[in-house]
Amino acid sequence: MSPVSVSTVHADMAGHGGPVRALAVSPDGNGLLSGSFDTAAIRWSLETDTAEQVLRYHADAVNAVAFLKDGRIVTAGADARIAVWMTGRPQPERVFEGHVGPIVALAVSPDGACLASASWDRTVRLWSLSDGTSRVLEGHSQNVNGVAFSPDGKSLVSVGYDLTLRIWHLPDSKPDIITLPAPLNAVAVAPDGEIVTGAVDGMLRMLTADGKISGEVAAVTTPVVAVTISADGTLIAAAGIGGTVAIVDRKSRSLLRTLIGPGLPVWSVAFLSYRETLITGGADGKIRRWNARTGEPNTVPSGKSADPLAAYAGDHGAEVFRACVACHTLSDKEGQRAGPTLAGLYGRRIASLPDYRFSDALKTMDIVWTPETVAKLFEVGPNSYTPGTKMPEQRIGSAEDRRALTDFIGRATSR
Ligand code: HEC
After folding, report:
1. Given 35, 214, 217, 272, which is the most exposed site by the fewest CB atoms within 10 A?
2. Would the CB of 85 count as within 6 Å of ligand 1?
3. How far is ligand 1, taken at its centre, from the CA of residue 15, in Å?
4. Which residue has the CA at smallest separation from atom 6 of ligand 1?
5. Which residue, among 268, 265, 410, 257, has the nearest Cα to 345 in the 3D structure?
6. CB of 170 within 8 A of CB of 148?
């Protein structure tokens, strides 16, 4: 594997075949989880910008993702299920069932023992991560859109479309109920306990830990879809439907800037813990880094060494292959990524590499990879051509792009 760039510029992370609905940064700051409308979750290395694992289990959009303290991963979906995964395993280790509507947000308690989930079934559930038992917190009269724990873990905050923010004092289940002027879409809690909620009127509202309104900022002009707070508590990022991402200074309650650049609108936002870097999950399926101080994208100008396709500058097929490079290497000398290496692809039978763990469904298929079969794979999409595949659904609409891609693969992968 080529040496990792030490600079702070990076390429976009392309892997999902649909909008990136959820993001979570690992506790050590080196890993990222993303969940998408394409029904997949992806575990990324933030050091190499490569996809390390595709997690496919959910039957519908993956709306929420989280890292647990013990290294496990949680995904939750519009299929009302929560899946708990051991890193590297192809199937979830446990599945929590109970919700009867889409799950849209997750929060892990500070001690790592419980998980809270918010659902459009109008309930919040509190799950024990050791035995999977759950308690139902009822009261919201419409979709619950967000949950967050207080830093001491003694209370849980939920927000919903019913205009209410509820502070549940655990383990008791009678909440304080605060009614706000607009339906609520997202919530986050700062390290000092202050609550920040984002509403459909584009406002961020701040509340003290005991529920007194303590501030507000007009962040965006459209409904807020996602809110996150930097690890040091100073910055808030809020994404609005339609494309604006606002960076707000929490102490002074002021709008510092809005992001400018490609890749908007976004569906999800997360700060990296140790840098002033914001990560966004785009409607175009791409994950991008931004400098939260300048509002500018943090990407590699093409041709820089951190770009794995730099050697192919100007090659249209290589540009199309940018949709693949996070998951597939072109040479078997490079380390394993989320997908099998494409080295020596043409002439190879599907799912025949001995050192990659393919989905069982692929092993019985009668496909040999050629420029024609690879083109077909992306003309009709992996879900139809290779049903049961882990590869996120994606299609390449233009015959010319498919041809450029298959020519490029032929040139770049022959041994
Ligand atoms: C997010 C990760 C990801 C992206 C992006 C991705 N793939 Fe895949 N791909 C996979 C995974 C995972 C598999 C293995 C599927 C399985 O076992 O279910 C796979 C399998 C394949 C296979 C079958 C290989 C074999 O040995 O049978 C081909 C061919 C392939 N991908 C080509 C591509 C191309 C070309 C692109 C870009 C247009 C692409 N993939 C984008 C993850 C990805």
Report:
1. 214
2. no
3. 10
4. 324
5. 410
6. no
Nearest CA to 102 out of 118, 115, 84 is that of 118
- Residue tagged 């947000």 (tokens): 105
Q: Which two tokens stand for residue 328?
A: 């597939």
- Give the integer Cα–Cα distance in Å for 316 and 328: 18
Q: Token pair for residue 149?
A: 């724990």
- Best probe residue, ligand 1, of 44, 327, 349, 364 (max atoms within 8 Å of C-beta): 327
pLDDT digits (tens, 9 = 90+) for 135-165: 999 999 999 999 999 999 999 999 999 999 9
359 Cβ closer than 6 Å to some ligand 1 atom: yes
Task: Give the pLDDT confidence score for residue 4 in this predicted structure.
Answer: 35
Query: What's residue 7's pLDDT?
Result: 39
Neighbours of 1 (CB within 10 A): 12
Rounded mean pLDDT of the chain?
92
Locate 78 and state its tokens: 């519009």
- How far apart are alpha carbons 103 and 74 in whole angstroms? 12
Q: List, in order, residues 6 or more apart from 373 with CB less than 8 Å away.
A: 367
CA distance 306 to 240: 31
CA distance 287 to 14: 7
Mean pLDDT computed over 288-302: 79
5 pLDDT higher than 70: no
Residue showing tokens 């993956």:
62
Please give the Cα distance from 382 to 16 (Å, whole number).
Answer: 12
Q: Per residue in 343-362, pLDDT tens?
A: 999 999 999 999 899 999 99
- Here the tokens at position 341 are 């290496």
Atom of ligand 1 at shortest range from CA of 326: 5
**Mind listing the pLDDT tens digit for each residue in 49-58?**
899 999 999 9
Query: How many Å apart are CA 8 and CA 363, to the nearest integer?
Result: 41
CA 313 to chain centre: 29
Whether omega before 171 lies within 30 degrees of 0, making that bond cis, reads: yes
CA 213 to chain centre: 30
216-256 confidence digits (pLDDT tens): 999 999 999 999 999 999 999 999 998 899 999 999 999 99
Rounded to an integer, what distance in angstroms lies between the CA atom of residue 112 and that of residue 106?
Answer: 13
Q: Distance between CA 2 and CA 310 in Å, rounded?
A: 12
d(CA 18, CA 38): 5
